[in-house]
Input
Amino acid sequence: MSSKGNSKGKIPTELKVMERLTLVEQFIAKLKLDFDASGFRKSRIVENGIASGLAAIDKAVELIADEEFKDADTACKVAWLHAHFARGLFDAETTEHYLGEGVFLELGDLPDSEWRQFAAEELSELQEEIVNLRAEIKEQSNKSA
Output
């Protein structure tokens, strides 16, 4: 089924998806060059982010070939997510390397149990903040109504 676009722009066109695909491919290629050229400890997390981004790009190409442009656009967005996360982490680790180990942040290869506990604690704090913000927004909207 061909999804060429509509008047509201909800379904991306083939051209728009191809543009996004090209941009994310270039972004990941630059990240991979930087990552491969770095002379310090290689991060498995960054490496996995690059690989996941490339896998999402491959999926997007398959979907474009099947003329499933909305799904291809989603795959491009997934590739961007992996690529931006990997780039951010790579940049942070590069900064840490230049500042000195342990000065900026520690994101080594911790056992899964430690990462799970850390992630659970962080997500719990974020959830609490979201609940508080929602309550604040609701309160403000009730005052203005």
Summary: Residues 110-145 form one domain. The first helix runs from residue 14 to 37.
